[in-house]
Structure formats: structure tokens, C-alpha cells
Amino acid sequence: MERFTRIVWILLGAVLILDALIVSITFSINSGVVATFGIGVLYLFYGLCRDRVRASRRKGLLQWMRIPILIGSGLMLLLFAFIAVLGRVDTVSHQEDAVIVLGTALNGEEVTPPLRSRLDVAVEYSTANPDAVIAVAGGQGPGDSITEALAMERYLVSRGVAEDRIMREDRSTSTYENFVFAKRLLHAHFDADCTTAFITNDYHVYRAGEIAEVAGIASTHAHADTPWYGIPVDYVREFLAITKFVLTGR
């Protein structure tokens, strides 16, 4: 059993390191990539040194590693399960006045798979609710040649969404700003309050909903699936982002 547990730690560490490298090469390096790589190195080292850690219990050597790793891993798993389950429960009625599609990183001028997943859900929503306005939200990130909002608009138009239904919010640099700036656009368009839904990937739904409330938006939501190879990095990054939200409120 001990040998099996040791192998599990080693494999888990190797998988996280490999996934972080794949995402960094395929897309870009962000806090989730760095944190995932770091956790992978820690797990790999812990697995390789596990025999020494267990043997050192009586001596007190290396014991400091075991408890923080187990507690931290347990807390992350609980949070991952919570946001994964909650993120797949949609609340949209398809009667909202507008839908806000939250932006995420581009690959040059092209939408990345996570963003494409969000936009595909937006296309489905636009078909189910043909009267809704679609606000695409996202500014220009480091290394991008255009704004996320423009890339999102282009993709939606290529999928048959009428250009006059789309509003671009292209100044934001965070989820909070996505909502604040999109709210201003929508209120100016409708000249009054309006009902909204937002679309984002499943791992992001919980935090986005909390931030929407902070921004003064009572919104329903629909989720987009997260590409399987991005799950470790995205969930680790979201763990960091939720921690920041708890501490700062944004």
C-alpha cells in the first residue's frame, strides 16, 4: 500500500508538471501554469522522498512537509469539487434581455479552445433567445494583437450571429471590469435596467457570479465546458483567484 501511495504522488506530480508545460507552450504562461508546475514539483519531490518522510516521524526531520501538503491538497480538492458541481448547474431562462460573454486569453488574433467553448454556448443561446443582445467583454492582453472582444465578435459573426446584435466591451482587464463596463454599455443601450445572463467556463461560474453581485448585476448564467487538458491549470488558477476574491472582494 505504501508503495502504491508513493507511486500515486509521483505520477500526480509528473502529470501536473507535464500539463503546465503543455499549456505554457500551447497558449501562454500565467499564474495557473506557474502554480500548477510548482505543485507538480512539490508532489513529485514528496513522492520520491516519501519513505524518508515517514521514517523521519520519530526524529522530526522532514515532517513539516507532510501535514501542509495533505491539508493544502485536501482543501484544494474540496474547492475543486464545489466549483465543478456548482459550475455545471445553469440558471438561464433564455428570456433575458442580454447575455454577457466573459473573455479569456487569445492566441494572437484567434480564440483559444476555452473561449471558443464559451462562444459556442453564446451561439446556442442566441438561437434560443433571438431578441437578446450579446455583449462580448474583454480587453487586449499581453501578447495579443487585438482585443478579446473583437476576436469574440468575429467568431460569433462567422457562426451566423448578426453583427448588429453584438456589443463590444473592449477595455476590461479582469472579470470585475468585464461586468462593470458591460453593465454601462447595456444600461446605455436599453436606457434602463435590463435582465442579463453571463456565459463562462464551468470552473469560473462560481466566482463570476459572486463578482457580478459585487458589480451590482443580478445575473443568471450558463456554463461552457473546460477542455480536458486545461482542467488542472484552470482549476489551480481559479483556486488562487478565489483566494484573492475572499481577501479583496474582487
Please describe the topology of this protein.
Elements: H1 2-26, H2 31-48, H3 50-55, H4 63-87, E1 98-102, E2 106-107, E3 110-111, H5 113-128, E4 133-137, H6 148-158, E5 166-169, H7 175-190, E6 196-201, H8 205-214, E7 219-224, H9 231-248
Parallel strand pairs: 1-4, 1-6, 4-5, 6-7
Antiparallel strand pairs: 2-3
Helix pairs in contact: 1-2, 2-9, 7-8
General description of the model:
There is one protein chain. The chain is an alpha/beta fold and 250 residues long. Helices cover 58% and strands 12% of the residues. The protein has helices at 2-26, 31-48, 50-55, 63-87, 113-128, 148-158, 175-190, 205-214, 231-248; strands spanning 98-102, 106-107, 110-111, 133-137, 166-169, 196-201, 219-224. Helix 1 packs antiparallel against helix 2 (31-48) and helix 7 crosses helix 8. The longest helix is centred in the N-terminal third of the chain and has 25 residues, at 2-26.
Largest sheet: 5 strands, parallel
Shape by Cα distribution: elongated
Give the helices and strands as they follow along the chain. HHHHEEEHEHEHEHEH
Cα Rg: 21 Å
Our count of helices gives 9
Query: What fraction of the residues are assigned to beta strands by DSSP?
Result: 5-15%
Number of strands: 7
Give the overall average pLDDT. 91
What gap, in angstroms, lies between the N and C termini? 44 Å
Helix content: 55-70%
Keywords:
250 residues; alpha/beta; two-stranded antiparallel sheet; 58% helix
Short description:
The protein is of the alpha/beta class and 250 residues long. It contains nine helices and seven strands, in the order ααααβββαβαβαβαβα.
